[in-house]
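Good morning,

Both structures are done.
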Amino acid sequence: MNPNATGITRGIDALKPGLICNTLVAALLFLLQASSAPAATWYISPTGNDSNSGTSTNAPLATLPAAQTLASSGDTVYIMAGTYYPTTTYPVELGVYVPVILINKNGITYKAMPGTRPVFNFSLVNPTGERVAAFWVTASNVTFQGFDVVAVQENITTSNNPVSYTHLDVYKRQPYTHDPRIGRVRRLYVLQAYRRSGVGRALLEAVVAYARDYFRLLRVRTEEAGEFYTTHGFRCIASEAETTHVLELTRAA
């Protein structure tokens, strides 16, 4: 008889069905617990410091990029009250746009602290001959909520022509009319690699929902995306200056 046979038999006998089942259940529970770890919250403040932990209102970070570095998909970055003045820029994109805040991590929510309306002021970023892209988003499933973006340079022929925008530089008051209740959608652009994935639709729906509180009409001028806008409720129009499509707005119930 093989002198190891008894040991092998005992080892096999130990692997009873109940034990195997219990072992698998324990392993699965461990994996589920590891995958369902609670999402984290991070905080930034104009008086914060990027060397802080960022995990509480008592130790906030100073910038959105610093919070993004620490955050993971599913996390929320709370933007505390006050005015932020970003200055860091990234290499020019598409030949003319200077990105300032680069959002390249998926699944993170950036939102104002409840009861506040923080502001990102880009007046300190004014490159000659180029346009400023306040938020350059290459990530997916990212949410922005409850803050304003102002003083974003749009003129590419002079060194400083700040104008104010709301909701991430996507719409502004219509420059071709004196009616303050008419807005214009501008620079709603999706990189080629992210098209036909619902990103453009999500952006436009967010802009329209937000604009309902401020405008009765949205206008847009487009040469290539007419079908996209008509699919989402805009109608073609040829009788107004610098306008190809319009959308009548009603207040959400």
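Second structure follows.
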Amino acid sequence: MRPARNGAARMTSRSTDPLSSAAIAMVALSLRQPWAELVLRGVKTIETRTWKSSFLGEFYIHAAKQIDFDCCSRFGINPQTLVTGAIVGRATIVSRIDYVSEKMWRAGEKRHCVAEPLATQLKKVRYGYVLRDIVRLAAPVPCAGKLNFFPLPQNMLNVANAAVGKSAIKSAKSI
């Protein structure tokens, strides 16, 4: 994946990856709440997944409808205040970390915010996507989420881009 001239990311190889079309202008990634909120606050700067992707570049943050209530308690977040089922921000993935040992996993805990040991998470590698340039949208944009990275329809992209343009507040500093 390499940045396109317009700043959006595009896939450079042909595959079954949902991002393989050169026509994709921008994609989104669903995060359960409060994980999306923690990213927007700059607390969580590494998003972890069980699947590997070569995607690097800008994407929209989608707050899924599911809420992790235990995580809300752990971080002192009132779940009733969380936006769900909407595009809530934008960020850039700048690199990927392949967590292959408990030592590596623990070293990144303050940035990925997952307290459980890697061994209880999975018995295989977990991937961390390093986030920068995190921006909260001025207003959430209602949108159905999907698994993995998913392309945003042009009408949704226009609304999300306008919401980013109106947002003067960066909720996290570039690291």
